[in-house]
Amino acid sequence: MKILVCISNVPDTTSKINFTDGDTKFDTNGVQFVINPNDEFGLTRAMWFKEKQGATVHVANVGGPTTEPTIRKALAIGADEAIRVNAEPTDGFFVAQQLAEVVKNGGYDLVIAGRESIDYNGGMVPGILATLLDMNFVNTCISLEVDGNNATAMREIDGGKEKISTSLPLVIGGQKGLVEESDLRIPNMRGIMMARKKALNVIEPVDAAKATQDAKFEKPAAKGAVKLVDNVDDLINLLHNEAKAI
Amino acid sequence: MANQYVDIETLKFLLYKVQGLQDVLDQERYADYDRESVDLLLNSVKDFSDKELFPYFKEMDEKPAHFKDGEIVVHPQVTKYMKAGGEMGLIAGSFPYENGGMQLPAMVAHSSAFIQDAANNHMPGYIGLTVGAAELITHFANEALNDTYVPNMLTGQWGGTMCLTEPQAGSSLSDIVTSATPDGDHYKIHGQKIFISGGDYQGAENIVHLVLARIKGAPAGTKGISLFVVPKNRPTDGGLESNDVTTVADFQKMGQKGYCTTHLFFGDKEDCQGWLVGEANQGLKYMFLMMNGARIGVGRGAAAIATAAYQASLNYANERPQGRQLQSSGKKDANQEQTLIINHPDVRRMLLLQKAVSEGSLSLILLTAKYHDLSIASADADEREKYRLLLEIMTPVVKTYPSEMGKIAVDNGVQVLGGYGFCSDYILQQYLRDIRIFAIYEGTTGIQSQDLLGRKVTMDNGKALQLLSEEIQSSIKAAMAHESLAPYAKKLGGKLALTQEVLQSLMGFAMKGDYQRFLADATPFMEFFSNIVMAWLWLDIAREAQNALVTGSTENSTDFYESKIHTMEFYFKYELPKTTGLAEILMDKQALTLNTDKKVFA
Ligand SMILES: Cc1cc2nc3c(=O)[nH]c(=O)nc-3n(C[C@H](O)[C@H](O)[C@H](O)COP(=O)(O)OP(=O)(O)OC[C@H]3O[C@@H](n4cnc5c(N)ncnc54)[C@H](O)[C@@H]3O)c2cc1C
Q1: Of A72, A189, A225, Cβ closest to residue B36
Q2: Across-strand partners of B212?
Q3: Where is the Electron transfer flavoprotein alpha/beta-subunit N-terminal domain (chain A) (predicted)?
Q4: Which end of chain B has fewer CB atoms at under 10 Å, N or C?
């Protein structure tokens, strides 16, 4: 089985977020970037397929050269090879079109993307990708087993779970549940050293248009100073009248 | 509990920019590393520390290691950490490739350990001592001992310790009496060791003790001490069998309670076997050759605790409203909302002191680690010798400054929290208790100070000191290029001249053969000397920040760079002037502490 894990390069949630250019552009200065958590669950599941079922795992990212440390991390965790499509990921349509090209050329049986990235939360890529490739598609996927050409997946649905039988080739939009947080792997030193020697192929993007424009970003209101209250009545009063939470 | 215990951005700025890791990576020995891989490694260690270390920090204090039924019970996370650390490569990391290591530069290994220390200082010692013990074996022991012990130590399956201290031999190792009697291919070991960190713990398959002992008939004093590998369980064809090493107690302490401190008996039943490392009577020499790394490690631990305490108190100061700011009229408006305590000048002073001490100490550790790397890896033999001497003179300073000033910094952190600082619900009090040991073990401040003044300053006719002052002079020259830094550079130049004066005055006693007087004030001299060294390091930090501002570097924010310059200014205003008073003390001819006739303690 040949697996492609699509990884998005996103800011660490502990980073301070600022915008520039009249609040239309995200300021990346001093921001730490990581593998998108939904993709990391998928990558970890892919490592399981590699170790237990002998799968080959490649990772792909659409992004400029600054995303390479994130891609190297995926290689250090254990992916065999990486592809970087050398273009800014301007929107979900654009990214999906680039990834579709990578999948077509690589002949993958299983494409694991994240349900959504935690920066822009677009949630579009896996669906568009499956459509462009005419592959089966399972979104919000919380478990995945593959036996030969058959796949069994579990989806999270409102108030419950849905079990699906399908077949390869398949695209999934994965999330927590594919593996648990405690299963996530921290690259060890040997993995990091080996990652330096693994192939990271940079390819140029195909012609593709973006379909959306960012008009404006707004940050949530700033957090005020902490107020210490002496008794429950004061607390209720504040929650009711000031915070309007109750 | 605040969950930000380390400032990775500052760590990386100091590592890459201020102390120039690239100079080390340019050496052939480290050709397999680049900045990207080092970055990835540090991020991994941070993730690892978030997961395996920090969550257990408070718990290890609340449930101390203790002695029960002949064994030491430690927090269950200890064995997990040893195994996970082995898998991560944290133990093998800095060993050469031929020993199964990753040949990591010391600068990177210490950066990685710094993150772990800051997350939970009760834990990294278990790995640190295993590394130290395995290093002694790889450097000085024969192949058979290497093959038998090192592989299992590097995976974390077996722990390691350093057994120097005995009840009557702490600072004075020449008084060691543990004995070694030849018995075929090995020696029979008999004696006791106290205060042995990581000496025994439940779940460890084996512990490999590196023991200083005296072979029967060896000369008295330090010249008759040899080094032995003495495992808790000795390997036989059929597996492991007990080697008559008995744990009799675990010392209960004010801090680092999760890091066990054991009392061990060797050969209670006359069946304890030890294997000689290298040559007889060379034990102390071997031990001290390995000490530089261990001493950087102790300073690093203290710097890390000071860092974590600073983060926690800064966090508190940003959230605690109390009082109102004075208006220009000198009045306070009681109707105004309370201000955050971070807005009070006195609180800012305490925070800035912590920042100056913790970040300055980290820079000191990275610089010393760099000397260590270049003393091994420089292509040129003269360069290697130069860095060896610089490492020698900096070693007592890197052990002592973070330990001594770190505890003052953490004390200020407690003060920032007011009453809550004293309460167990807040973590500051634990940092204060934990940091206290650093000025004691691995050679007390008194002993380090004598090493600095009595040996390092004078070694090779003052060559090490001369090289260090050349380094400082070249920083001063470089800082002069920035108009805004020139006044500080000049001030530092003046302090170098003052150092000369102080040393001339002290050397007078040594010339006359009055060594007791020469060394009587070694500790105030350490304080004086390390204060000036730190001013140098802060000037370098400020220069790098100023360069970044001038060239418009966007690697860090403008606020970040300006805060570094501001902290340098703080150091030069609040800390450096203390050297004037210290110089006065050091040059005063009165010898008040030498007089043992007068009943001064009557
Ligand atoms: C928690 C902990 C962990 C430890 N871990 C280890 C370990 O793993 N392995 C190990 O071998 N040891 C270990 N030690 C022992 C430690 O290194 C010693 O405690 C330390 O070296 C001081 O020795 P001492 O306690 O006997 O004090 P002493 O030597 O009695 O010193 C008492 C005081 O006298 C001063 N003093 C002593 N001699 C002189 C002198 N000549 N000139 C001026 N002042 C002097 C000292 O500076 C100190 O202030 C540990 C100790 C502790 C508390």
Answers
A1: A72
A2: B227
A3: 23-212
A4: C
Which residue among A30, A193, A226 sits closest to B37, beta carbon to beta carbon? A193
Whether the CB of B211 sits within 6 Å of ligand 1? no
Report the chain A residue with the minimal C-alpha distance to residue B559.
A30
Which atom of ligand 1 approaches the CA of B165 most closely?
A: 11
Domains contained in chain B, CATH given: 32-288 (2.40.110.20), 290-321+340-587 (1.20.140.10)
Q: What is the pLDDT of residues A111-122, one digit of tens each?
A: 999 998 877 777
Chain B nearest CA to A243, separation (Å): 17
Per-residue pLDDT for A228 more than 80? Answer: no
- Judge whether B538 and B530 are in contact, CB under 8 Å: no
pLDDT at position B103 over 80: yes
pLDDT higher than threshold 90 for residue B49:
yes
Mean of pLDDT values over B83-105: 94
> Using CA positions, which residue lies closest to atom 43 of ligand 1?
B446
How far is B208 from chain A, CA to nearest CA, in Å? 24
- Asked if A187 lies within 8 A of B40 by C-beta distance, the reply is yes
Q: In whole angstroms, what is the distance from residue B245 CA to residue B189 CA?
A: 10
Percent of chain B with pLDDT strictly greater than 70: 99
Residue A224 — very low, low, confident or very high, per pLDDT cuts 50/70/90? low
> Using 50, 70 and 90 to split pLDDT, how confident is the model at B248?
very high
Q: What is the pLDDT of residue B501?
A: 98
Q: What is the DSSP string of A184-240?
A: --PPPHHHHHHHHHS-EEEEPPPP-----------PPPPP------SSHHHHHHIII
Instruction: Report the predicted TM-score, pTM, of the whole model to 2 decimal places.
Output: 0.93
Task: Please state whether B195 falls in left (phi above 0), alpha (psi between -120 and 50) or beta.
Answer: left
Among residues A126, A162, A121, which one has the least CA distance to residue A42?
A126
Dump the DSSP string for B425-439: TSTHHHHHHHHGGGG
**Chain B, 329-348: which have a CB under 8 Å from a chain A CB?**
337, 340
Distance from CA of B426 to the nearest CA of A (A): 17
Q: How many CB atoms lie within 10 A of CB A78?
A: 19
| Beta partners for residue A171, in sequence order | A111, A137
What does the block give as tokens for B6?
A: 């380390």
What's A108's DSSP letter?
-
**Sheet holding A81-85: strands in order across?**
A160-167, A150-157, A136-147, A170-174, A110-114, A2-6, A56-62, A81-85, A200-203
Which tens digits make up the pLDDT trace of B20-42? 999 999 999 999 999 999 999 99
The string of pLDDT tens digits covering residues B492-539 is 999 999 999 999 999 999 999 999 999 999 999 999 999 999 999 999
Residues of chain B contacting residue A69, judged by C-beta atoms under 8 Å apart: 36, 39-40
* Residues whose CB falls within 8 Å of the CB of residue B407, separated by 6 or more in sequence, listed in order: B302, B432, B435, B436, B438, B439
Q: Is B126 touching ligand 1 by the criterion CB < 6 Å? A: no
Gap between the Cα atoms of B341 and B184, Å rounded = 70
Partner residue facing B40 (CB), from A73, A225, A228: A73
Give the C-alpha separation, B293 to B371, whole Å: 11
Count Cβ–Cβ pairs < 8 Å, chain A vs chain B.
Answer: 64
Confidence category of residue B2, pLDDT binned at 50, 70, 90: very low
Q: Is B197 in the pocket of ligand 1 (CB under 6 A)?
A: yes
Name every chain A residue with its beta carbon within 8 A of the beta carbon of B30: none
When pLDDT is cut at 50, 70 and 90, the band that residue A191 belongs to is very high
Please list every residue in chain B whose beta carbon sits closer than 8 Å to the beta carbon of residue A73: 40, 43
Question: What domains are defined for chain A?
Answer: 2-219 (3.40.50.620)
* pLDDT value of residue B170: 95
Say whether pLDDT at A219 is over 80: no
| Helix spans in B141-282 (H) | 143-154
